[in-house]
Amino acid sequence: MATVQDLLVALCGLTPQVVTETLWALARQKPPVWPRELRIITTQSGADACARLLLGKRGKLASYFREYRQPKARCASDNVIVLRGADGEPIEDLRTPQDNLVVAEQIAAVIRDLTARPNVRLHCSVAGGRKTMGVLLALVLQIYGRPQDRLYHVLVPAPFESRPDFFYIPRRPRPLAVHKGKQLDPSQARIELAEIPYVRLRAFLSQELLKGSLPFTELVALAQKELRALEKPEPVRVDLARRRLVIGDAVVPLSLSRARLYTAFARIKTTQCAEPARKTCGECIACYPSVSKANWDSVRERLESLAGDNFLWPSDPYDPAVALARFRSLVSKTNETLAKRLGSERLAKCYRIRSDGPRGDTCYGLAVDKSLIRVES
After folding, report:
1. Residue 86, phi then psi, degrees to nearest 5
2. Which residues, 6 or more positions from 61, have their beta carbon under 8 angstroms from its beta carbon?
3. What residues form DSSP beta bridges with 42?
4. CB–CB of 198/150 below 8 Å?
5. Can you tell me whether residue 208 is helix, strand or coil?
6. 233-245 tens-digit pLDDT
7. What is the DSSP code (8-state) at residue 1?
8. Buried-state track 29-53, b at ≥16 Cβ within 10 A, e below 16
9. Residue 251 clears pLDDT 60, i.e. is over it
10. Any idea what the Cα angle at residue 77 is, between residues 75 and 82, rounded to 5°?
11. Which of 16, 36, 106, 140 is the most buried (most CB within 10 A)?
12. What is the DSSP letter of 181?
């Protein structure tokens, strides 16, 4: 088994002290956490402050690792991620709604890529940067975060907070000068790491959503649809005349043969229910017709009667084997169209033509509950 590597993702504004303060606090957890790599998400001015104060052989990061003889965390200039605004230029501040959206997409991209690495455990700090950046990081982590990934805020007392000369509590006292000859003893400071609990939604979302690169607003909207479908899917309106399905606000166009197939299965559920006393289907599949070579012709006639056309008669003279192969192909292609148009395999599973049982004696029927189906005449 590969060793799990800890990685710190820190938001940063004009006070890069939050990075070393977080490292100091993580090292005092039980067991201690020593990140081996850093990602600093910041603005252009924040990146300049990091280059001036934090990075390099004489920077505070190197000083911290030397002083505490702690394993070094990689943090070169390419580990500092400078956010860009709606115009594509490095951003100095988040002022407009457009800037907030593009920044959200950039933060989402960073977390998506890092959480795709199975042997990495993220420690995310919202202590620096704009409050909007912290909110966005927390929201993104709700979607992509795994059980091992953590979210923190760093708390530093007022006399030391944001001081340009305070980066961590030193091993040996080094007084800090204040006004009128007074001094502060940094050994008296307290750096506290507050873990922020968050709801992890990753296990409830489809893989194509997690691996895709949708704009943030679309990502959130689709995640919301997938979560809502776990509770109750949207109704489906079967419109054979227009060759389409209408599912919530999504329209799924189908070829005529696929529309006829879906209509036939919808009518089986709504007009030929095997247990009409049940208000909802639940796990019941009693209405699913069993399809085999032995009974294929009777099943074909039933489906074509319900759809109003001999759409499963692909050759002349009629060949049952060819017709059965066409049926299975139509099932597969209809389900593929659903997944493509709905943008989510998980959503599509709520409405697909489901198969149950071994090949050669398989039952077929709609996954969606009969109470949610409306077939237009």
Report:
1. -60, -25
2. 19, 20, 23, 54, 55, 73, 75
3. 12, 82
4. no
5. helix
6. 899 999 999 999 9
7. -
8. eeeebbbebbbbbbbbebbbbbeeb
9. yes
10. 110
11. 16
12. G
